[in-house]
Design a protein that fits this description.
Blueprint: E1 2-3, E2 15-19, E3 26-30, E4 35-38, E5 46-50, E6 57-61, H1 64-72, E7 76-79
Parallel strand pairs: 4-7
Antiparallel strand pairs: 1-2, 2-3, 4-5, 5-6
């Protein structure tokens, strides 16, 4: 997951590069096509999207840098809470 090189930072929508592990398609997604879930650990922090080519629901881990890029790009974020 990365910002598209050369894309304007202040003008227009932010686009992210992504790939589908099932059909191996590569594409660009807007912030509205992605969801970010931030959990209490690395195992429970991930981003997800639906592949526009094959329709597969994709879920990938999100490290610190990915979380920073996605939140900075306007991706909707869900904070997961654990019950004690």
């Amino acid at each position: 997951m990365s910002f598209v090189p050369g894309a304007p930072t202040q003008v227009g929508p932010v686009l992210f590069r992504a790939a589908c592990p099932d059909c191996r398609a590569r594409f660009e997604l807007s912030a509205g096509a992605l969801r970010l879930a931030i959990g209490g650990s690395r195992r429970t922090t991930f981003y997800s999207f639906t592949c526009p080519e094959c329709g597969t629901a994709v879920r990938k881990p999100a490290g610190e840098r990915i979380v920073e890029l996605l939140t900075g790009g306007g991706v909707r974020t869900l904070r997961l809470h654990t019950t004690a």
